[in-house]
Amino acid sequence: MLDIGPVRLSVFDLLTLIPPRGVEQLVQSGFKVPSDLERGWLSDTVIEAFLWQLCSDHRNVFAADASMCTVVQLNASTRRLWHGQSFTDIDKIIIPMNKNGGHWTMLALDRVAKVRYYFDSLNKTGARQLKTTSPNGIAGLIQKLSSTADIKTGWKSTQWPCIQPSHVTQLDRYNCGVFVCFFARCISEGVSIPAQTCDIVAEREKLTAQIFGFCYDDIEQRNTGVCKVCRDDDGEDWLGCDACGQFFHASCLDVDYVECLAKFFRCPC
After folding, report:
1. What is the radius of gyration, based on Cα positions, of the chain?
2. How far apart (Å, rounded) are the C-alpha atoms in residues 108 and 125?
3. Which residues touch 246 (CB under 8 Å, ≥6 apart)?
4. Which has the closest alpha carbon to 58: 191, 242, 222, 189?
5. 20 to 30 A Cα–Cα from 31, which one of 55, 74, 191, 216?
6. Cα–Cα dist 29/153, whole Å
7. PROSITE patterns this protein is in (predicted)?
8. What is the pTM assigned to this prediction?
9. 201 close to 17: Cβ distance less than 8 angstroms
10. How far, CA to CA in Å, does 262 sit from each of 231, 237, 268?
């Protein structure tokens, strides 16, 4: 239904962007929600789409597929993993993790700082250095993921310290995927991760807006002189969103220019 780079999002995937209360409102309005929808729990594909967009904006960052963790856990072949990918200009690698299928965490490898960061939104112990010498548990998985990355990149991340930073914690049972996207954005942008508070509702809304066409991500410094999608000011098929005020090329949105001009136009956010 929606393609973000190489990632294809289905209606089911898009429904996972909606928080539980919003899903309940859909149900009450008569919308048929899939019975296997874990309300509020981001799908693997949504996380991959967000990370792809993030890496497009930060060329020194590379993100692994959400499936890498499972592949490594199963000791499956990684021969074609990251095939053809150059790491010459890559400084950071983000690896989403879901060890037991019930909670998203994240590993980040920083080549410049020569350190690994492990983020668990449920961790309440504060900053600490993890011992990765054990072959079992989360420490063993971190070491296996690092070793796999080293084979592909030539880095020596298994020798780097692994830090679990102090950060804001999750207070519900479903926002772990949103936290992973939040942590990944902070790491990519090089900004400090808050230790006490985070408006996770706003983060989910921002994530949703980014998935649906980068509509509200620059609300404070909006450049309405360029197309929101291609960032170009050329062309003649301009459409103004009646909701957010941003301009788009009809061709960039793959919509009928004349038809959209004749009615209320709202961009895909």
Report:
1. 20
2. 19
3. 215, 222, 224, 228, 240, 267
4. 189
5. 216
6. 50
7. ULP_PROTEASE (PS50600)
8. 0.78
9. no
10. 24, 13, 17
